[in-house]
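Today's session is about reading a structure prediction critically. Students often jump straight to the picture, but the first step is always the sequence itself: look for stretches that repeat, for charged clusters, for runs of hydrophobic residues. Only then move on to the predicted structure, which in these notes is written as discrete structure tokens rather than atom positions. Here is the chain we will use throughout the hour.
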Amino acid sequence: MTPIARERVALGVLVAGGLAAAALLDDSALSLYVLLLLSAIVTVGVSLVMGHAGQVTLGQGAFYACGAYTAGITATLGGPSLLGLALAPLAAAALAVVIGVPLLLLRGHHLAFATLAMHLIVLSLIGEMTITGGDVGLQGIPRLSIGPLELDSIRSYAYLSCLGLVSVALITRNVLSSRPGRALRALSSSEVAAASSGVAVGRYKLAVFALSAAYAGLAGGIYAFHIGYLAPGSFPVLLSIEYVVMAAIGGLGTISGAVIGTASVVLLVDALSRLATSSGMPSTAPVILSYAVYAVLLVLAVLFLPGGLVSLLGSVRTRLGRRERPFALGNHGGATPRRRRTT
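Below is the predicted structure for this chain, in token form.
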């Protein structure tokens, strides 16, 4: 199967599986499913930035919050809710462009710490501004309305989140298969070599940074209408670390890796949270397990799975393919056993 065919099959599986889950899961599971899909949207952007632009960002939670508050404020001020959802990724991308010009001059851990500081600054501003509701939070966000249709059930937001993830996956696939995508692959290999080949390194880095922020803003906009209430505590620093761990676990630079990594981490954390809140566990168990699981998963991924779960699945598929082809194809497509040479 060619790489293009594999991509089409993967997208088909994503669409079919996402819609089937949204239709079959009950309301209690749908709440977790919506959060999983929204996290996957953000993680696709993180995987794109880290895997192709070589930028370590710990500030995606700030762009998630920017999109959420943009959509929420637009709707609470009387604007169309659909307009608020459309402005959410644009506002997050604009914020990324403004702060990305000075921040992207940094590299490595300096850039990571700078984006982390940006996240903290955004949270402080949200807590101090009146229009955002301050520390009390933004309340009374109406449901999303698309024409006469109002999304008033959790299942409708599951479908919307699935549509958002599929759209983000298609956009990312088209970007990577285009001329800018080839420039990004050259950039991920070597910045010096890419610059010597005529690639505008700074411009491409900023564009990818803004695109990943737009993904986070879109997810934040859906989150705002889904929950109906926003507060600074909804966007902790741990949120940005979660997205990095999800991208690293799944496999940097791949769409399927972002989705697989997000699903693995979200389901594992949910299972551990249920365990931590069970009877007999100390009150600090949920917090300790949350931080511990992210640290352990990240260390294990770096040491034993540098290519993520996608590389592991790829190697398993390759081995299975070799076992299923013990014969060589003849001239007419028939299977003929390979002969040993005689001397």
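Discussion point for the tutorial: Residues 201-227 form the longest helix (27 residues).
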